[in-house]
Amino acid sequence: MSNLYDFQAETIKGERRSLEDFKGKVVVVVNTASQCGLTPQYEGLQELYETYKDQGLEIIGFPSNQFNGQEPGTNDEVESFCKVNYGVSFPLFAKTDVRGEDAHPLFGYLTEAAPYSGFPNDPAGERMNAFLSSSKPDWMTDNSIKWNFTKFLVDREGNVVERFEPSVVPASMKASIEKLL
């Protein structure tokens, strides 16, 4: 696949949607979870969306239950949780595998286009690195998604520009987003 627009995915309502629908937009693709220590990032993602959507930003969330079972609910429960607790109005897709043999092909493309280059050298990144290095050392050896709230920034042509690891808060992405808008 050559860019984001080559993929389709199931929305949280169960409808097939072409990601070509986001053509011409700057897109943040993020895998999410409702019962994770990083779940409050929904608030920051929603703030980014509200700040920049009129300039062409889209955020698309892919809930995943692959990281310690932190997204156990149904798609309806996930959608309700996000709206009630964080006011999420950006598009959400159906629960999706984002790593491993059953990963949605979109995430294979994203991780190949923006390989893992380590966690940020800050306290949150160091904690995440220590946790995964001890609990899931085999996950640290490839470019796969490491945990919930890995974020990929995609330009208006559908090309992956940057990868932000889970410990990076959404507000830290502003400068990178603004460059593309």
Overview in brief:
The protein has five helices and six strands, in the order βββαβαααββα. The strands form two sheets. The chain has a four-stranded mixed β-sheet, sandwiched between helices. Strands 1-2 form a two-stranded antiparallel sheet.
What report would you give on this structure?
The chain is α+β, with helices and mostly antiparallel strands and 181 residues long. The protein has one domain: 3-Layer(aba) Sandwich (Glutaredoxin), CATH 3.40.30.10. The chain is built from five helices and six strands; from the N terminus they run βββαβαααββα. The protein has helices spanning 41-52, 75-86, 105-113, 123-135, 174-180; strands at 8-10, 16-18, 26-32, 57-63, 151-154, 160-164. Strands 4-3-5-6 form a four-stranded mixed beta sheet, sandwiched between helices. A two-stranded antiparallel ribbon has the order 1-2. The mean pLDDT is 96.
Order of helices and strands: EEEHEHHHEEH
CATH class: Alpha Beta
Kindly identify the CATH topology. Glutaredoxin
Instruction: List segments where confidence is low: pLDDT < 50 over at least 5 consecutive residues.
Output: none
Structure classification: alpha+beta
Mean pLDDT over the full residue set: 96
Main β-sheet description = 4 strands, mixed
Give the CATH architecture: 3-Layer(aba) Sandwich
Helix content: 25-40%
Alpha-carbon Rg, integer: 15 Å
Query: Cα distance, first to last residue?
Result: 24 Å
What is the count of DSSP helices, taking H or I runs of 4+ residues? 5
Inertia-based shape: globular
What percent strand? 15-25%
Tell how many strands the DSSP assignment holds.
Answer: 6
How many domains, in number, for the residues?
A: 1
Under CATH, the homologous superfamily reads Glutaredoxin
Strand order of the largest sheet: 4-3-5-6
